[in-house]
Amino acid sequence: MELFIQNLSKTYPNGVQALKNVSLHIPTGMYGLLGPNGAGKSTLMRTLATLQDADDGAATLGEIDVLKDKDAVRRVLGYLPQEFGVYPRMSALDMLDHFATLKGIPSNQRKEVVHSLLQRVNLWDHRKKAVSSYSGGMRQRFGIAQALIGDPKLIIVDEPTAGLDPGERNRFYNLLSEIGENVIVILSTHIVDDVRELCSNMAIINGGEVKYAGVPDAALGELSGKIWEKVITKAEIDTYEKNFKVISSKLVAGKPIIHIFSEQNPGEGFRPADPGLEDVFFSKINA
User: Fold this and answer.
1) Does the predicted model carry a pTM greater than 0.85?
2) Residue 205, number of CB atoms within 10 A of its CB
3) Helical H segments across the chain, by residue range
4) pLDDT tens per residue, range 26-56
5) How far, in Å, CA of 185 to CA of 177, rounded?
């Protein structure tokens, strides 16, 4: 199954144009949707999850018209929003059973489905604890469990690793990569590492527009031999930004290291740098 998005647009009543003719082809597997906060990612995710309408455009999932046949989409959709509410004293076991009921799982199958999912996301030993008492990583794994109810063909996860510590993030990566082998998983994030670790295809979105869509390695290849770095002082940042195409700067041991884009050797003490996905990201959103 594949997801095709054609010229999707959305403008909010306050005049903010969140999506501007967005077109994407999303195949089975992990697909990264990368962009800064406010880029339009969540608007696109909510539209695909049938939570809001687009103004123009089309989207099809296999034979399903995503924008017109919302019930059909919901039958094959798993959705993990950036934040989701829980009943404060309900255990993971009872809450997942409640979600399974809402999803239409027959009563004679729910117990097996719920137990299987809790084991799959490694929460079986914590099944009787209230979800509200879970750590961030455990809560996100519970979110994935509820998203997997009903064997969805499309799974949307919105900013899933924000706030997770490195260990929790790695466990979440492993879980998502396993899920993404057989279904479409759209990973919406502003964290470059999420896409680098997980996704074989990606898009970069900023200002409601698609700035890049394709394979991460191809994007890296476009920058080969064109990224240069230099250690400078904080006082020099403004000067370099005026004289060079600075695509990013970061502190290393308290000193700024800038990356610039240049077709030719810029001289002035710059040395060639191997391009990374962060360079791709910043070069596209700052273009």
Assistant:
1) yes
2) 26
3) 41-48, 70-75, 92-102, 107-120, 136-147, 166-179, 192-198, 216-222, 237-243, 277-285
4) 999 999 999 888 899 989 999 999 999 999 9
5) 9
